Amino acid sequence: MLSSSFSQWLVLPILLSACICQPLFAEIVEARLPAGTFATADFRAGKPNLPAVLLIHGFMQTREFPTVSRLADGLATAGYTTLSPTLSLGISRRSRSLPCEAAHRHTLEQDVAEIAFWVDWLARRKPGPVVIVGHSYGSLQSLIYAANKPSSTLRQVIALSLVDAERQSDPRTTMLSEAKKSIARGETQLINYTLGYCQKYVGTPQSFLSYAGWNRTDILRLSRKSKVPLEVIMGGKDDRMGEEWTEKLRAAGNRVQVISGANHFFDAEHEFDVLELTVSMLKSGEKKN
Hints:
With 289 residues, the protein is α/β, with parallel strands linked by helices. Helices cover 40% and strands 20% of the residues. It has helices at residues 5-21, 66-77, 108-125, 137-147, 172-184, 205-212, 216-225, 245-251, 270-288; strands at residues 26-32, 38-44, 52-56, 81-85, 130-135, 154-160, 191-195, 198-203, 230-235, 255-259.
């Protein structure tokens, strides 16, 4: 079991020592996306012999979300080059998470295109292999990118809390059907949906369907199509996932590590566990290449 007071006391002094020896210099970078929107990211240069890590936050969050920001801090301290963008969701220089009731016109496909943009940006800034670490819906978006036409620099994807997008309330089937009919009619108006943790997701049919249209079969198929090795980290007490999701991921041939007692966000004492396991996976990936 990874979670233990011994593990925490072992990792923490190492991180503090590294902070003293190697100060972290964060640079906020801004780039214009192909769509014309301006997006920002937190960049920290690391050791040239280590891969660069692109961290992708979860649904409608920002790079400041604790799960990814703490991990970025720990990886940078360990010497890795890190890049943590805030996906624009169609808003230039977005700095806040979007509420469920906001007008959502962005799509998952646009999110994936931004991941591709930042992989290319990172490859130009720091030559060498790139690893993507995504959390929740960010892990699904990263997997979609890796299963299609990823950059040749991409070496590995580490998926934290790989989302079980099919776990929805009973009206899900009806909402999906109505969204498809609306799109067929060419409608783009805002409609109230239920999506993930949002009981009232105000979005266009296109936006809703791009996220809610994924099911377990799709995600498991993607995991088998990934052009690079996929590593999955799940929380043992993640109540956002449906029954047997972890087992189904394993049955599809994926390497899945479970942090006992951790929730969807790996918070509290489990932030040390997820950092330790992520670094271990990064090192394992280095040995294989």
